[in-house]
Write a structure and sequence with these properties.
The complex is a heterotrimer of chains A (292), B (136) and C (133). By secondary structure, chain A is an alpha/beta fold. Helices cover 65% and strands 9% of the residues of chain A. Chain A has 12 helices and 5 strands. In chain A, strands 1-2-3-4-5 form a 5-stranded mixed beta sheet, sandwiched between helices. Chain A starts with a helix and ends with a helix. The relative contact order of chain A is 0.08. Chain B has 136 residues and is an alpha+beta fold. Chain B has a single domain (4-135), classed as Heat Shock Protein 90. In chain B, helix 2 (37-56) packs antiparallel against helix 4. Chain C has helices spanning 23-40, 57-72, 84-93, 106-127; strands at residues 6-9, 12-16, 44-48, 76-80, 101-103. Chain C has 133 residues and is an alpha/beta fold. The radius of gyration of chain C is 15 Å and the shape is globular. Chain C has a single domain (6-131), classed as STAS domain (Transcription Regulator spoIIAA, 2-Layer Sandwich), CATH 3.30.750. The chains are: A alpha/beta (292), B alpha+beta (136), C alpha/beta (133). Chains in contact: A-B, A-C, B-C. Chain A binds chain B through residues 140, 143-144, 182, 186, and chain B through 36, 38, 72.
Chain lengths: 292, 136, 133
């Protein structure tokens, strides 16, 4: 069926050499990949093509015989996405295989126009399909990179700090959306358990707007904390936000709110049976004198 | 785009201990799919509510739990089937506080909030099928 | 049939739920607890759910019922150790269990029960019998 396949098997080394000529710039220009590594990868791909049974159909790459080749290309392309190659460079890697294969066909069927035409059409189609498959895998790989980065960014943006033994605070900064709030919620509740904190302060000084959705998320966090046995204090509500909350008809009546983080901290200390007192000058000097 | 089913398991729900089995089966698959602990808990809780619903209101039935794929997203799809009396007013059944079984009436509406997709097919007298999906 | 063991510590009853409860087991616990409260005249009930992986509406309702029944029998109930994932899910489900006292762990739960029990005693000591209602 595919006579070309047999030809590739016979002259593997020269095909690889011609292919490498075509893709050498890929490593030279960007320095993203080592030339030897590129050659090893090309060799693997070529073997995956040449090692299928000689009668395998080129027109259907979904055949089980092509599975090894597809897996190999899939891994390579996903890796290309991580290494920083562009989609066209990744596709070019596969498309460059056309030239050496056409060359091979011309050498063999140079004087038989009909056979040459049909072999070239078949090969062209085969490589195009592989290139499309490569692009799909590349995009899949890149999607995974993006979603991983998103997760990492979410984790970075929500630090929970311990203010005192048994008191944690979550200073929220930036716009809150649904997925971020979920991460915020989880890390706060997790911190409550880890630090054994009875009081948690959520400070929203750095949150530009509070809409119904954000307010609902905050309320849910506060309720969940209560179910676990901790109390939440909401602080840092700016005047505009206070207005929005009332206009939107959001009920914060069951929530302890304080204007400033410091007020919330004072309350949190009170709730845990502590108080902040000013040490008077007389006392300090007396103390200092004793020390001397 | 239609979701591709990668794996399905069926659990018969005939008694309250089958509800426990259903929860455990859903938990195993949710862990396999690497859902976060919170997401696992949400899915298992929804499964528990819906399985109890199948038992109490549908007089028993079965649950299919399937691993599905839609593009790069994977998810868990729960399908509950019973041949009970069916639900006459689905909208009412989904509203919080509506109950016919003496519960708090959070079963259906609550599980809908715990999942990403939720679909009820029911005909009075012919039973109910509820399909719920949570994507990763 | 399976039962969840109920421990007694002075005036208090302690329950640790460790199994994935089926509905009947939850109802048995509700019966057993109310019986024990009146038997021993318990002043407080502590339910540790730190090993529970889910609380659905049925278990939530059972906990609320236990708390209400205990209150009628003059005992306080405190539920301790709810896991964050469970709490988030319960809130999403629409259950905020407003009638239930919660605490982070057994230690703070016991502290709460002791405080409320002592407060109750003080009325008896200083206020005399006539002020009790």
């Amino acid at each position: 069926m595919s006579n070309l396949l047999k030809l590739i098997q016979e002259s593997r080394a020269s095909v690889l050499q011609n292919w490498m000529e075509g893709i050498r710039d890929l490593s030279r220009r960007r320095g993203l990949i080592d030339e030897r590594e590129l050659e090893a990868q090309s060799g693997d791909v070529l073997s995956a093509i040449a090692d299928v049974p000689a009668d395998t159909n080129l027109s259907n790459i979904d055949l089980p015989a092509w599975q090894t080749l597809k897996e190999l290309l899939g891994t390579l392309s996903a890796a290309r996405a991580v290494q920083g190659f562009s989609p066209s460079e990744t596709a070019l890697f596969v498309l460059s295989l056309k030239q050496p294969l056409f060359e091979l066909a011309r050498k063999h069927w140079g004087n038989k126009a009909n056979e040459l035409f049909s072999e070239i059409t078949l090969t062209n189609d085969f490589i195009d399909k592989l290139a499309l498959y490569t692009t799909d895998s590349y995009i899949h790989g890149r999607d995974q990179v993006i979603s991983r980065q998103q997760e990492e960014m979410l984790e970075l943006s929500t630090p929970v700090v311990t203010l005192w033994d048994g008191i944690v605070a979550l200073p929220l900064i930036g716009t809150l959306d649904s997925s971020r709030t979920q991460v915020v919620m989880e890390s706060l509740l997790q911190a409550i358990v880890q630090t054994n904190s009875r009081v948690a302060i959520i400070d929203i000084t750095g949150v530009p707007t509070v809409d119904t959705l954000v307010a609902q998320h905050l309320l849910k966090t506060i309720t969940a904390a209560r179910l676990m046995g901790a109390e939440c204090i909401l602080s840092g509500i700016r005047p505009q936000i206070a207005q929005t909350i009332v206009h939107l008809g959001i009920n914060l009546e069951d929530v302890t709110t304080k204007a400033k983080l410091s007020d919330a901290f004072r309350l949190a200390l009170e709730r845990s049976g502590r108080a902040v007192v000013r040490v008077s000058k007389a006392n300090t000097s007396a103390h200092a004198a004793k020390e001397l | 785009m239609a979701a591709t089913v990668l794996k399905t398991e069926t659990i018969h729900i005939k008694s309250s201990s089958d509800v426990v089995t259903a929860r455990q089966q859903v938990r195993t698959l949710a862990i396999e799919l690497k859902f976060s602990l919170v997401d696992q808990t949400k899915i298992v809780t929804a499964a528990s509510e819906l399985a109890r619903n199948t038992l109490d209101h549908g007089g028993g039935g079965e649950m299919d739990v399937a691993v599905v794929e839609n593009g790069i997203r994977r998810g868990l799809r729960l399908t509950f089937r019973d041949h009970g009396p069916g639900i006459a007013d689905i909208k009412q059944a989904l509203s919080d506080g509506f109950t016919t079984g003496g519960g708090m009436g959070l079963g259906l509406g609550g599980s809908k909030r715990l999942m990403n997709e939720f679909d009820i097919h029911s005909q009075p007298g012919a039973g109910t099928t509820i399909t719920a999906v949570r994507w990763k | 049939m399976d039962r969840i063991p109920i421990l007694r510590m002075g005036n208090f009853l302690l329950v640790t739920i460790q199994v994935d409860m089926h509905d009947r087991l939850a109802l048995t616990l509700q019966d057993d607890l109310t019986n024990r409260i009146s038997e021993v005249g318990a002043r407080g009930v502590l339910i540790d759910i730190s090993s529970l992986e889910i609380v659905d509406s049925f278990i939530g309702r059972t906990l609320a019922n236990i708390a209400s029944m205990a209150r009628v029998l003059d005992a306080q109930t405190v539920v301790v150790g709810m896991q964050p994932a469970v709490a988030i899910t319960l809130v999403e489900l629409g259950m905020s269990l407003p009638g239930i006292r919660t605490a982070l762990n057994v230690e703070s739960g016991m502290e709460y029960l002791q405080e409320t029990a002592e407060a109750g005693m003080e009325i008896g000591v200083y206020g005399g019998d006539s002020t009790e209602d």
